[in-house]
Amino acid sequence: MTTRVAPCSPQRRPWVLAATILASAMAFIDGSVVTIALPVIRTDLDASLTEMLWVLNAYTLFLGALLMVGGGAGDRLGRRRVFLAGIALFALASLVCALAPNPTVLIAGRALKGIGAALLVPQSLAIISACYPSGERGHAIGLWAGASALTTALGPAVGGILMDLFNWRAAFWINLPLAALVLLLTLAFMPETRDHSVSGRPDWGGTLIAFLACGSLTLGLTWLTEAEGRLTLSLVLVGLGLAGLLAFFRFEANVKHPIAPTALFRSRAFTGTNLMTLLLYGALSGTMFLVPIDLIEYRGLTPTQVGLAMMPFGLIIGLLSSKAGKLGDRLGPRPMLLVGPTVVAAGVAGLALQLDNFWLGVELPLCIMALGMAIVVSPLTTTVMNSVSDARAGTASGINNTASRLAGLFAIAGAGACAARLFQTVNQSGQGQFGLFPDSDASSYEAIVSAYQLAYGGSLAMLAAGSLGAALIAAWLIPIKPGTKPEK
Length: 488
What we know:
- The structure is a single chain.
- The chain is mostly helical and 488 residues long.
- It has three domains: 10-191, MFS general substrate transporter like domains (Growth Hormone, Chain: A, Up-down Bundle); 203-258; 264-488, Growth Hormone, Chain: A.
- 77% of the residues lie in helices and 1% in strands.
- It has a two-stranded antiparallel sheet with strand order 1-2.
- The protein is globular, with a radius of gyration of 22 Å.
- Residues 1-6 have low confidence and may be disordered.
């Protein structure tokens, strides 16, 4: 027995489940709400596109780089203790963001929030598994997944309404009462659990290398959005980041307690699903970064309208993903992993067409994207977990979760860089920034709009190609029939 289960009475379990759902939803909602708030924040704080990219990337960078470390810390130090620390840090960071007087402080607060999320996110499923007996665990995890998806779907709409009623800072204030409720539920009902078989020091060397590599890539890609002066340095940083990732995997092959055991990547299915995760979630994150800019700054929607427009996206995923998972169990994962990314690519391509009609040009493509994600999400996760032994399940889950977070990090920086560079190249007026438009009677208006449309469509076309790449990887690396779990 590796995990000692602390007593958790049936009366306490619903409250423990509620705490983990609220905490996970708080972390998931934060990204979608802040994305909608970006155009408003940009105007209010007079921020550049590069600074707005870092508002998103600072959070994702620290979350992605430290996610596996946060999971290991819970195993060693106690999941309840690390969960509490993550919630407290997340709340403190939300306060810093809500009070931020300038983009620099806001970026620092978002980085701090990423550290807090890296501590709390990995604990949720581990705590549920430790507190629920095996016969009830699947149902509890299903409730957690469904509730998290639905709260994430409602988050942008609620956040948009709050921003319209108050201002963008409400997107951060809302975290404080939620964090207080989670802290109370945790202190009152959650027992402490840890994995007593875990020994040895955490892999701090691998963590540092991964963090520096990801940071170098992110900084290089983000600086590509600037018009002048940093192109050479940006390319050097991107090269150093790629070299750092290679160094990370070499280091992991020789360390005693790696955070990413290289032996797992000998499985074609495991390698394939993680490559798919990078491309598919990259396409998703990049699209979700660009669409609110288009809706607010080009199409003229309010934050509330944007939240309502994007609500069906989360609802479709939340309501259909479990059914797609059952279908994948019957058919095997490969058909779902082929069809899902292809449908996502079709939705992104529909957005790239930029039809004037809102329902055909925005809402329908978003719903098609959501359908594709609903088809692929559950089979993708199942394939990851079935490609390794049960003893490696936690590590495999951590690696795949990290891949999805880093995919968002690189895609947002890359899509922003692509859009900005395309805009600068085709903008004949020499005025304006990507996503910012002068008055319609200004002499430069037509040139700026034309450049924006080419940049927006070109960036989305790149993301659609990435999603198609995920389908090609599924055809190449995923077995036709589900295999058995490795024994070691």
